[in-house]
Amino acid sequence: MKTNIKFLALLFFCSISAFAQSTKEEQELIQLSKDKWQWMADKNVDKLKNLFDAKAKFVHMSGTWKTDEELEIIKTGSIWYKEAKVHDTAVEVSGNTAIVWNRITLVAMVRGNEAITEFTVTEVYQKQGESWKMLALTFSSVRDTHQIKK
């Protein structure tokens, strides 16, 4: 009987530990995503270059680019991500892969014209060593009433 109680107690504490770790990773990814939006607004390509995997893909309304192209677009201001107002976020972590969904209102300058657009943005990350690297970022145009299912 004592063995069963000890086993159940150990199982309970392991479950709590796993939940806390997951929550910690999720919070880390949410913060990383927020930081990314700020770095994009600031045109901080040095920080973004460290975040983006060299083979990452970026899907926009007008095309798909690789990392070097995305960094050049941000650096030159061809697209200036002035502000991303994040309304809702969901995160799922599976092993060393994570997906972050953000429902945002994006205020951007696109080739000299201001655009305000509702998007759900899907970000795919992979844990490489001690840090997360972004593998993909996809903008999906949605209505402002769109909600991310959690």
TrEMBL record:
Source taxon at top rank: Bacteria
Domain DUF4440: 30-134
Keywords tagged on the record: Signal
Signal peptide interval: 1-20
InterPro entries assigned: DUF4440, NTF2-like_dom_sf
Pfam families recorded: DUF4440
Keyword Signal assigned: yes
Protein known as: Nuclear transport factor 2 family protein
